[in-house]
Model the fold of this input.
Amino acid sequence: MTGTHEPPLVFWFEFASPYSYIAASRIEAAARASRVAHAWRPFLLGPILTHRGFADSPFNLDPRKGQYMWRDVERLCARDGVRWRRPSAFPRSGLLAARVAHAAGDRPWVRAFCLAVFRANFAEDRDIAATETIGAILNELGQEPSPILGRANAPDVKQALRTVTEAAEALGIFGAPTFQVGQELFWGQDRLDDAVAWAGKPAAR
Amino acid sequence: MTGTHEPPLVFWFEFASPYSYIAASRIEAAARASRVAHAWRPFLLGPILTHRGFADSPFNLDPRKGQYMWRDVERLCARDGVRWRRPSAFPRSGLLAARVAHAAGDRPWVRAFCLAVFRANFAEDRDIAATETIGAILNELGQEPSPILGRANAPDVKQALRTVTEAAEALGIFGAPTFQVGQELFWGQDRLDDAVAWAGKPAAR
Done:
């Protein structure tokens, strides 16, 4: 999902992240309203959290922060009209979904796939780490699952996801979602509008 | 600074916190525009961070998060027209300033005092932990420092600040600033508008 010509705004996200789900639900409308071209870039937050010293999601390791997050996400989804059901397991690995997204490259259904994975996790309480779930989502999008799932597990796709995750870390990304405009980072779904505004500045393009 | 009749919006803040500074600079205008009454409530984040397992500011313990924060605060201050100079020491203890604010109770100059302390820390690089700095700020506000500083160190004022900090923790507050509307918490300066909107809902009053 990385093009030669980088658009002004890059949306870095992790399929396991509730705030990434909200951002994914909002970014198309926000970017369209400001006519800002953007790329969706799934990466793995897990390795970066490990390097930061976290053995689990910070929301699990810190119960007060976790309790706040679940209420906050519920409230934000209600505000923004985003479907929400608290998942019975958290976090669920976004590895396979991220590999599929990278394997799919620039195919026109990729963003719909990403949104469907987020909804499966955070509105339908489905296990997005399971091949069956990802296959079912591909089916729902009219895509034959087998060849895509095969590609997703090819060594070059696995390596591409590793490379993207390393690039995220090299940029200074430490959480998800993060919006990147050149060297500027905006961390958190609540900074989407700031990032879009920054990307729309003449100097940022 | 706690009244018998709690206003719909309570602004919990820590003098050592850069994002609290931004919130303090913005809240009057935001609340006035929505006609939401609010209280300013300084507390100590340090004891809560200690209970969460942090021996220093998370921004110092986690260099990537710290690096992001300093750039983000600079950018937000530029956006909002808030004076900013990165302090040469971080964090500086807000203990004395918080005690003075509690000692002053409902005196009309308290919010001006709080803003002046924030500016001293984050726009003028002055040591707000020093009695001389706090005394000078009181002087600039036309207040005789000695009696107020004496009150600030009285046992009942020290206990009042402890009690408020325990109340923050009991509410589930884990960071600063936090905006409280009844039982709802909104963490982070970027959620000020959400909190004001929530406080303005008929059901929240």
